[in-house]
Amino acid sequence: MTEAVFKWPVRVYYEDTDAQAVVYYANYFRFLERARTEWLRALGVDQVKMLNEKRQIFVVAHTHASFIAPARFNDELIVTAELARLTRASFAIDQKIFRGDELLLEGGVKVALLDADTMKPQRVPRTLFEGNEHAS
Amino acid sequence: MTEAVFKWPVRVYYEDTDAQAVVYYANYFRFLERARTEWLRALGVDQVKMLNEKRQIFVVAHTHASFIAPARFNDELIVTAELARLTRASFAIDQKIFRGDELLLEGGVKVALLDADTMKPQRVPRTLFEGNEHAS
Amino acid sequence: MTEAVFKWPVRVYYEDTDAQAVVYYANYFRFLERARTEWLRALGVDQVKMLNEKRQIFVVAHTHASFIAPARFNDELIVTAELARLTRASFAIDQKIFRGDELLLEGGVKVALLDADTMKPQRVPRTLFEGNEHAS
Amino acid sequence: MTEAVFKWPVRVYYEDTDAQAVVYYANYFRFLERARTEWLRALGVDQVKMLNEKRQIFVVAHTHASFIAPARFNDELIVTAELARLTRASFAIDQKIFRGDELLLEGGVKVALLDADTMKPQRVPRTLFEGNEHAS
Q1: pTM of the entire structure?
Q2: Cβ neighbourhood burial of C83 (10 Å; 0-12, 13-18, 19+)
Q3: D14 contact residues in C (CB cutoff 8 A)
Q4: What's the number of CA atoms in the CB half-sphere (13 Å) around residue C10?
Q5: Which among A7, A23, A25 has a CA at the least distance from the CA of A15?
């Protein structure tokens, strides 16, 4: 199950589009984060508890995206997330956005776990992506 | 000078528009807040200091807007702000958005001053809109 | 069934919040529009077809909102929409946002139906909110 | 002058921040685009004319960013843009965001010139970044 690709549906609203009648390029990064947030939730990670009880936050250190084809108003998209690499203080996630079978975007993020007060890197739990209730 | 209408220029970028090729209705409220923030700054109010030193924040309690004509990509707008009413714990600001002489939007906000921790209403300084360095 | 209040769930993500750790005031208007868009969809209105085949668009002419209590990261909200008034060329919708039983926002919009090319008001179909496939 | 790094100031407002009290990661891409748009304007490129008269649009094909240090509410940022590579149908721009001397973000975009109707790649004018009125 940790092998599985996480999938999250996103509907495109007017708020997401721009005057070129496609989704504004920066807004795809919102869609990517919704999928990551829901994946963490599905893995039992409660980010609010993490902040309040452990003073830990996830922070995006790097991101990239190739815009292959545009999404438009009213489109139903599927956003995927998949663990690419897990190191001591960070992890990389590969992400894609599909409309049906059509690949619209390919990208990813590198995420660090930081102390919310000192902003110092924290050790990422080895079991984070194994889907247990470790982080709550 | 407290009588004067504050004016702030805003340029419309792709990020502000939607697939109808006009500024997305919710985004005008960003423009309105930029003008209010800059007005407070011009009046000598440092919102960061207010939060850090006095634990006080301004919070919008009510807003309304009539969308008279749409703004488009690349438009240069003028956003105005004018004190409409000052009460013990809040104030009302009337705001307009113009493109040249053309009125695009007419609206306003009611803003409360709150304790950032308790969210309880605080007394708004009588001299807030007189342009002295009272709030810093 | 035209009497019923339409309800749409919205999850709060980081993208919706601001540095006061609450949902940014302008972003509630996005939530309100998502509910309206989904309501129209549920009523059988296909806004893409409307634009392509009839050159008609819905445009917000006025909006207002009272911010009663703030929504926060991770909150699950319910956004409601209810027909308040239907006139020849526009309609008014009352909307609320709840977190559980707690009312967070009360507001509404006045929406006009326009010709997408001339931006002239169009007659709103009498049966729009009766839930038939009239607009497609 | 084509060698010069273009610089554009951006002020951080509440709309740009999130509940971690820093600029939301996707919103930096808006700042990057504002600088690119203003650079094109400074080079004499009128994107509205380009669309209306030539049916040509610029589209971001790829973007990447390293988030080195966070920007916060009220920060005054400088966003830079510099030509990295110009090919037949696209160009790459390197971009940075600074707060004073501190580098906050390093990234870039690859931009394609497309026919707005067919979405087919168009030849990018050789003189685009030489600062003449070629594109209008």
Answers
A1: 0.94
A2: middle
A3: 18-20, 24
A4: 32
A5: A23
Report the alpha-carbon distance of residue A41 to residue A45 in Å, rounded: 5
- Asked if residue B76 has pLDDT above 70, the reply is yes
C42 Cβ contact list (under 8 Å, min separation 6): C6, C131
| Sheet with A102-115: strands ordered across | A6-11, A76-86, A90-99, A102-115, A56-67, D56-67, D102-115, D90-99, D76-86, D6-11
Tokens 């703030």, residue located: C70
Domains in chain B: boundaries: 6-125
Smallest CA-to-CA distance from B119 within B57, B40, B39, B45 is with: B57
Q: What average pLDDT values come out for chain D (136 residues) when binned by 10 residues?
A: 81 97 97 97 93 94 98 98 95 98 98 94 90 48
| Token pair 């509910």: residue | C35
Nearest CB neighbour to B14, from listed A14, A19, A73: A19
User: Which active-site residues of C does the annotation give?
Assistant: 18
Question: How far is Cα of residue B27 from the mean position of the Cα atoms in its chain?
Answer: 13
Fold of the domain spanning C6-126: Thiol Ester Dehydrase; Chain A (3.10.129)
B15: CB partners within 8 A, 6+ apart: A18, A24, A26, D30, D33, D34
Contact B29 C33 (CB under 8 A): no
Within 8 A of A33 by CB-CB distance, chain C residues are 13-15
Residues 6+ apart with CB under 8 A from D22: C19, D70, D71, D72
State the best of C16, C36, C37 to mutate against chain A, taking most chain A CBs within 10 Å: C37
The whole-angstrom distance between residue B28's C-alpha and the CA centroid of its chain comes to 11
Cβ of A61 and D66 within 8 Å?
Answer: yes
**Domain D6-127 architecture:** Roll (3.10)
What kind of architecture, by CATH, is found in domain A6-125? Roll (3.10)
| B96 CB neighbour count, 10 Å cutoff | 22
